[in-house]
Amino acid sequence: MQELIPKSWESIVKKITEQPYFSSLGAFVNSEYQNNSCYPERNKIFEALKLCSPKDIKVVILGQDPYHGAGQAEGLSFSVPDGLKHPPSLINIFKEIQNDLNVAYPSSGNLRHWANQGVLLLNATLTVRAGEAGSHQRKGWEQFTDDLIKEISNTSEGIVFMLWGGYAKKKSKLIDGDKHLILNAGHPSPLSANRGYWFGNKHFSTCNSYLNSRGDKSIVW
Questions:
Q1: Has 100 been annotated as catalytic?
Q2: Of 120, 121, 126, 160, residue with least CA distance to 142
Q3: Which of 27, 139, 144, 178 maximizes the CB count within 10 A of its CB?
Q4: For residues 53 and 180, what is the distance between their CA atoms, to the nearest angstrom?
Q5: Which residues is 162 bridged to in the sheet?
């Protein structure tokens, strides 16, 4: 599995991939892909890293699991390919952007254009068995992505970390808040959003103001 990690990330992940748990994780993932239908496609497991090299990261948005429905997962948290129906959480993300920045609701749920601007769309667990939500949790992925977040925090400066929901908020302990901006909100899922924990957080305008204050370009959300 290590051969799938982009070369631009080698210096960041070197210490991580040398840990014993990563070998066990790789064996598990290889077995799952050989014996079951899994998402995303194997060559897209590290798609978030492919599209956003360490030197280009401006923002990190942390999801939990890949979508487990056919054709949805493409290795980017919250994103779905062009032409697919927008999942409920993504709808609420787009509604918040619409209200926050006074822009039109987009037709496509494909977030690759965010990744190309320096938004790392990272799921805590990078694979899943088809139709079985959470089926690849607690196999080592969470340790890998926690280690990755720590390395990003330690080796970079001025990154905006958007942590949505209780699970993501726990990751704040991995991030140096003196070097980076941490934005917390409820999860954009309907359950959380309808209780008032999501809408009005203004994360997208706050993020751009912070980037501008550092001399960086805004993200075109």
A1: no
A2: 126
A3: 144
A4: 18
A5: 61, 183
